[in-house]
Amino acid sequence: MAEPTRGGSLAAYRTILRARMRAQASYRISFATDLLGTLLVGLTELAEVWVIYHNVPLLGGLDFAAALLVFGVTNICFAAADLVVGHLDTVPSLVRAGTIDAFYVRPLSLLGQLVTSDISLRRIGRLTVGIVVLAIAWSAAGVAPTLTNATLLGLALVSGTAIFAGLFTIAAGLQFFLIDGREFTNSFVYGGSYAAQQSSLVYPPPVRVLFTFVVPSAFVGYLPAIALIGLPGGPIADPAWAWWSPLAALAVWVAAALAWRSGTTHYQGGGG
Amino acid sequence: MSATLSHQVRSLWLLARAGFRRHSTYRLALAAGLTTNAVFGLLRGSILGAVVASAGGTLGGYDAGQVTAYVWWGQALLGAIGLAGWSELRDRVRSGDVAIDFLRPLSVPLGYLAGDLGRAAVNLLGRGLPMIVLAVLVFRMPLPTDPVTWLLGFVAILVGVVVAFLGTYLLNATCFWVVESRGLQVCYLVASGFLSGLYLPVHWFPEWLLLLARCTPFPSTLQAPLDVLSGRVSGAAAVTTVVIQLSWATTLFVAAQVVTALGRRHLEVQGG
Predict the structure, then answer these.
(1) Cα radius of gyration rounded to whole Å, chain B
(2) pLDDT tens digits, B2-27
């Protein structure tokens, strides 16, 4: 069979995505419930930050407004990544059931098919929480509305989303080896997202290094936030590093490409 | 009569053992869960420790050592005390298989509770114990020193498992009446996570929220054993904590029996 042309496969993806979105929206009540679900999860996480600052005025050098800025950016990035590639989480079930074979034999890229196999519109709930919080925090934290700051924010949002999307992909690649041990990858995917929501300064130095240079969580929310507000940061937490977030994202993507490639070539088929 | 009783106890014991075996089959999954729990423990320990330090050394009855114990016992008990994962009854109501459960000469909630206690035992040994060893060796978590606290703590864990299970059972039982229960499940998941003390101690909540939490059974699932084992409460206060748990367990058990009986009358299973 001839390889499909680039334009041909794009059209295929467009059709698939449109069908997925229509399918989700057609079960109205179910969709509304899922939307409510991710909204509530976002609000609960916000409530956690609020409860902490109900008790203390400062945590890791951040006040409530600054913490909200970190929270907003992190949640937008995670929700966006989750919306686009979060359903790669289903790879272990597909591998176990052997149904992933069906994806292998189609004349489209495996990753492309899996990514477009679902688009989790329900994540919009959590995304909304992130956007509202970011908008409030931006003015509450007194960030100057300069072009530099806007650029920095844009860079942080794009890189942060790319970082989380890359972590999801690394996890999916490793799933081909892990199968039953799928939960291993939660430690850096969801752990990375959890770590990103706080000031780096609350972590002891070894943990800070881990979540800055191995899993680059600090580049998502904390480093951009202190750069935007003009806070000094601390050891292993320099606000100037915020500008290097695309490099962190690139590193994650290289790792993701390697993990995905070795995972998909490791797979021997379900015997169908 | 006594023969029937011993028969029932034997059935429950066999169900508990089957639950233990079923959930101890996937050892790699256990190891994976352990890794993720440890990473989250590390992050939560750092964050909550920083909150207590920022509050001046004690907060809501926790000092630095006690908050470490709160976090690590929480990570250790997370697997055993199943807050919202169980959905067997819901699935069986939908498929009609629940009719078979009603034919058995055993209380339906009690039978499932026995299976869940087996599951809890696996998780307590497989996920809990290593976490405690890690916390003591690496994070210098203080352990209770007197045998009474250990005894009360163990009872609190046991009753916590029971309360958490019965709550989930009641949630499942709504399926006798409601076909689409996902909205309810989502709300339950969010409420149980937040109000059980899974993320933050409920004692850090503002007054009104603490009051709200105490009107629900959720603090009796996780927060209660954590309070006893971390040494936040001791002596008479610890006994009171366990008594409150026991009264919730009794209330929920009676409710589960009644709801099951009502549901049984309402249930219509299709097919012959």
Answers:
(1) 19
(2) 667 888 888 888 888 888 887 777 77
- Six token digits for residue B86: 């169980």
What is the spatial distance between Cα B96 and Cα B90, in angstroms, rounded to a whole number? 10
Q: Locate B159 and state its tokens.
A: 């009753």
| CB-based contact, B51 to chain A, within 8 Å | yes
What's this model's pTM, rounded to 2 decimal places? 0.90
Taking each helix axis from N to C end, the angle separating A64-85 and A222-229, rounded to the nearest 10 degrees, works out to 140
- Tokens 């009609």 locate to B96
CB A179 within 8 A of CB A95: yes
Whole-number Å distance between alpha carbons of A272 and A266: 17
A chain contacts of residue B205, beta-carbon cutoff 8 Å: 51, 54
Residue B138 distance to chain A (closest CA, Å): 13
Structure tokens of A75?
């949640």
pLDDT, one tens digit per residue, over B210-249 is 999 999 999 999 999 999 999 999 999 999 999 999 999 9
Rounded distance between C-alpha atoms, residue B1 and residue A11, angstroms: 72
Distance (Å, whole) CA B257 – CA B39: 39
Q: What angle do CA B48, A72, B182 make, to 5 degrees?
A: 85
| Cβ atoms of residues A103 and A113 within 8 Å | yes
Q: How far apart are CA A243 and CA A153, in angstroms?
A: 10
A53, A55, A186, A198: best mutation site toward chain B, by most B Cβ within 10 Å? A55
Q: Is B58 helix (H, G, I), strand (E, B) or coil?
A: strand
Which of A58, A60, A191 minimises the CB distance to B43? A191
